[in-house]
């Protein structure tokens, strides 16, 4: 089994890691950030899981782009697991439609509610979600091991705002408190940040993943919109550290 994942603050990365620990079968975990420039991806297994955070009721742009570059083995069993804060929207139907456009079938899909890295949940809700994460994953393991096929029905939604391509939808910027440490450059999955005269400049290939925002050590990065989240408290999953996110670009 191969689990392809994307993660900016660790909710999805830990979900993949915990799944691997719980599964009886062999499983490899592959970061889609590390495949950003690979033109054709050949999975070495036909049991394929897609694990991603929900953005705007869809998958991150890079995730969609990665799936389009996969050459699926014959008779692939494909499932998806999305992590989300509170409103998953039609992400499963979007994944189903994408796979159908590539001649593939989404056999199984589930969503795991986790702390929000954009809009925030009350702290007590987040604490409970973190506490329940492993139990929620454990519940779906038998379905995946038994290759359960669900009927996934519903009208394909209109394309989301993310399908148009990378865009800095939140107006992410570094302010004058930037110390030029380069952490944001190292975590950005799109290599979309440059240091110019010791100050971080955001380019136009942004996924709005907020990795730079959450991992900046001096809170120099802020969002112009929405105002309510502009300087929200930093978040990352307690079992994930900065090197895990940096490594995801090369593993
Ligand atoms: C730009 C952006 C948009 C988001 N949109 C949604 C959304 O539409 N619905 C939702 O429930 N959560 C949304 N979230 C929250 C994330 O899906 C959630 O916190 C996820 O678990 C983060 O995963 P990660 O820690 O692996 O990066 C959004 C997060 C970001 C950064
Ligand atoms: S992580 Fe923060 S302080 Fe470091 S270069 Fe980026 S914006 Fe500046
Ligand atoms: S600039 Fe920041 S928000 Fe945009 S892709 Fe890079 S790390 Fe993510």
Provide a quick synopsis of the model.
With 251 residues, this protein is α/β, with parallel strands linked by helices. It has seven helices and nine strands. The chain starts with a strand and ends with a helix.
How would you explain this protein's 3D organization?
The protein has helices at residues 11-22, 61-68, 91-101, 123-145, 183-187, 211-215, 242-247; strands at 2-5, 28-31, 47-53, 77-84, 106-113, 172-174, 193-196, 199-202, 221-223. The chain is built from 7 helices and 9 strands, in the order βαββαβαβαβαββαβα. It is globular. The chain has 251 residues and is an alpha/beta fold. The protein has 2 domains: 2-145, Flavodoxin domain (Rossmann fold, 3-Layer(aba) Sandwich), CATH 3.40.50; 165-247, Alpha-Beta Plaits (2-Layer Sandwich), CATH 3.30.70. α1 (11-22) packs parallel to α4. It is 28% helix and 18% strand. The protein starts with a strand and ends with a helix. The strands form 3 sheets. The chain has a 5-stranded parallel sheet with strand order 2-1-3-4-5, sandwiched between helices. α2 links the parallel β3 and β4 (77-84).
